[in-house]
Amino acid sequence: MLSPAGRLEVYQPVPAPDGDSPLGAHTHLLPKLVRLKRPCSAIDPIPEGWQPFLTLHPAAPFRPSDDDSHDYDRLADLSFLPLLEEFGMEEDLQVSGTFQAHVRQHGTPENLKIPATRRGRARMHIELLRMAAWGHEGMERFVPADTIKSATDFG
């Protein structure tokens, strides 16, 4: 893919019809995006008039890239927070701040107004998982027991 900013090449083998797709970016998806005249997926939160240039994908604190569940990774979670605070979308930061302030004041997320947007609800769910993983009292009622395998083992 070429742009005024540079050239990006992704090398990833396309598997046989009965084979497994490798992890990572897939070049065979680019023609579909180009055909639709989209520089990125329709669900990417790119502001109107902007073009994506670089996307950061943090390590998932609850799930590795191969989608197998694993114990909560405190270091992965903490390592991404400074990037989120500096470059995160305003809605994400607002939902996180509102959620944390409500739980600090009331002890649980009970009676907290649910965000109107799908993205806001997803962000609230992430905050709920994070607080449960950190061992915040009262979260176990809101998070299924098998969601976080080792919520109190921060290693």
Feature tags:
155 residues, mainly alpha, two-stranded antiparallel sheet, 3% strand, disordered C terminus
Could you characterize the architecture of this molecule?
- The chain is mainly α and about 160 residues long.
- The protein has 2 domains: about 1-35, no CATH class; about 55-155, no CATH class.
- The chain has helices spanning about 30-35, 75-85, 90-105, 120-135, and strands spanning about 1-5, 5.
- Strands 1-2 form a two-stranded antiparallel ribbon.
- Helix 3 (about 90-105) packs across helix 4 (about 120-135).
- The longest helix is centred in the middle third of the chain and has 17 residues, at about 90-105.
Summarize this entry quickly.
The protein is mainly α and 155 residues long.
Number of domains: 2
Number of strands: 2
Largest sheet: 2 strands, antiparallel
The low-pLDDT segments are 149-155
- Structural class category: mainly alpha
Tally of helical runs: 4
Which strand-content bin applies to the residues? under 5%
Report the C-alpha radius of gyration, rounded: 19 Å
Oligomer: single chain
Please estimate the helix content. 25-40%
Straight-line distance between termini: 42 Å
Strand order across the biggest sheet?
1-2
Mean pLDDT: 74
Shape: globular
User: SSE string, helix = H, strand = E?
Assistant: EEHHHH
InterPro entries: DUF6925
